[in-house]
């Protein structure tokens, strides 16, 4: 064998060895970079009426299980969860690197985009494929078929926690019809965290109307079919995603893909199925910008209509 062939074979062997070492080192670094702990914060309104301690325990259990299953040799993961009733405190905790990840409402995420760098990885929702729909219900015998007919009447808003989105949708719908916003339009507005406390008074004709998640109304009908006989939907919102889970931008660079994969497979574990039931989650998806389209459109429409309404009031003075 001539010297040129020997040199070529030697070079190939060195190249192959180098690739094996490089691949091994990359695998080792990937394992070393994976999580030993996760500090997650979520806002109180994402709990949707669930007891705070139950919510914290459920999230810690399924996250710890999912992440440990992904760790090499099933190394345990220390999961710490903090609940925030003040969004500004959550923002500050992210800035101070006291939190690695946050779960919040889409409206909350949009409101803090300018204040802190977060990267969404997961969105969840109840209801139809495009998200949670809200409906306005009235009793059939009261002969109230339109929103306009509810002026100076009573309404109960039952939303399991997040009242911002349904309130915004109701205000916007009224403005579209050149009507006053909720507080001025209705005689009284009450808020209930349990949707049955909103639905039943309408069924028994104690209140004129209620605003509730459509999935809750459908669940109530399954338990009491008479509700579908007595109640009717006179208005329905577009679908809105329920919650978003985001990572601190520098934390995302190291762990984003692993965490996204772990959260996407939540329903494959028994703990994950319990989480779905407790939080009334229908589905968890990898985040896409399109998931925010409906809420962004609603915000834009509300802002435009509010400005027109203000101009009309000034001109009428």
Can you describe this structure in just a few lines?
With 317 residues, this protein is α/β, with parallel strands linked by helices. Helices cover 49% and strands 20% of the residues.
Describe the structure.
With 317 residues, the protein is an alpha/beta fold. It folds into 2 domains: 35-129 and 241-300, 3-Layer(aba) Sandwich (D-Maltodextrin-Binding Protein, domain 2), CATH 3.40.190; 134-237, D-Maltodextrin-Binding Protein, domain 2. Helix content is 49%, strand content 20%. It is built from 12 helices and 11 strands. The protein has helices spanning 3-33, 52-70, 87-95, 106-112, 164-176, 182-185, 196-203, 214-223, 226-230, 249-264, 270-278, 293-316, and strands spanning 37-43, 78-84, 101-104, 118-125, 134-139, 154-158, 188-192, 209-213, 231-236, 243-248, 283-286. The strands form 2 sheets. The chain has a 6-stranded mixed beta sheet. Strands 7-6-8-5-9 form a 5-stranded mixed beta sheet. Strand 1 (37-43), helix 2 and strand 2 form a beta-alpha-beta unit. Helix 2 packs across helix 10, helix 2 packs antiparallel against helix 11 (270-278) and helix 5 crosses helix 12. Residues 3-33 have low confidence and may be disordered.
Which key features would you list for this structure?
317 residues; alpha/beta; D-Maltodextrin-Binding Protein, domain 2; 2 domains; six-stranded mixed sheet; 12 helices
N-to-C CA distance: 102 Å
What CATH calls the topology of the largest domain is D-Maltodextrin-Binding Protein, domain 2
Number of strands: 11
Mean pLDDT across residues? 83
Total of DSSP H or I helical runs spanning 4+ residues: 12
